[in-house]
Amino acid sequence: MANNLDDIRQLIKEARKELMNKANVVATGVGYKTSAGKQTSELALICSVDSKKSVQSLTKKELIPASIQNIPTDVNPTGIIRAQQDPTGRFRPAPGGVSIGHYSITAGTLGCLVKKNNKLYILSNNHVLANSNDAAIGDDIIQPGSYDGGQLPDDKIAELSEFVQIQFAGPGVDPCGVGNAVASFMNVFAKMLGSGTRLQSTRIQAEDNLVDCAIAAPMPRRPPVTMATLPVSSRSTSSLRGVLG
Fold first, then answer.
1. Phi/psi-derived region of residue 37, left when phi > 0, alpha when psi is between -120 and 50, beta in every other case
2. pLDDT digits 0-9 by tens, 24-41
């Protein structure tokens, strides 16, 4: 019986082929089980489906078991998951996989949407949303990223909320020849374009970094713009007719 996260991850690998062969299942994974519309603290094998169907409409073979090796399953209706043809475009709402980034970087990838304390956030890497530790909480996030044409203020989609600090090795520690060459090459172009920003190759100490992540709070949706109806005098109406023909 699986009793920790590593065991459950191994279990989903073993059960994935069987689950994916069931009608309506589009993806599998590990997450927290949802009960009565609320997330619980119980780990479960998550089956994403095109749409939830009644038990009566499915055959015995198509039914997802309530549990596998005493680990509960959970069905999550996500719809069919499709790859975006052009992830560098501007998307509203913005799905996972599209270009995004802190306003000071080139561009990165929007990982997915997550909830913390029942509030929705954008999840990506520290180096994407938090500019490799150089950002401040509340900094603007744009979609698409600046390399893909995103600009402030029109493309602002979120503000940085939290990030996990990346621990870097000190300068000169085990330098990477490839990284230094790439940084030097890109700095030539930056100089030619008049940019004052320069890249530097830095080695991340993997043993001290468990994750490279950050979250950003999406901006509230703007209300639709409406045209106010103003009284128009007979004189102004005549003037308008003269202008419009």
1. left
2. 899 999 999 988 888 898
Fold of 5-77: GMP Synthetase; Chain A, domain 3 (3.30.300)
The domain locations on the chain are 5-77, 99-168+204-218
**In angstroms, how far is CA 49 from the centroid of its own chain?**
20
CA distance 158 to 139: 8
164 class by beta-carbon count within 10 Å (0-12 exposed, 13-18 middle, 19+ buried): middle
Cα 199 to Cα 131: distance, rounded to the nearest angstrom:
12
> What pTM was estimated for this model as a whole?
0.54
Counting beta carbons within 10 angstroms of the beta carbon of residue 22, is it exposed (0 to 12), middle (13 to 18) or buried (19 or more)?
middle
| CA-to-CA separations, 244 to 19, 232, 235, 238, in angstroms, rounded | 65, 15, 14, 10
- Measured CA to CA in angstroms, residue 23 lies from 35, 51, 64, 77, 126 at distances of 23, 11, 10, 13, 38
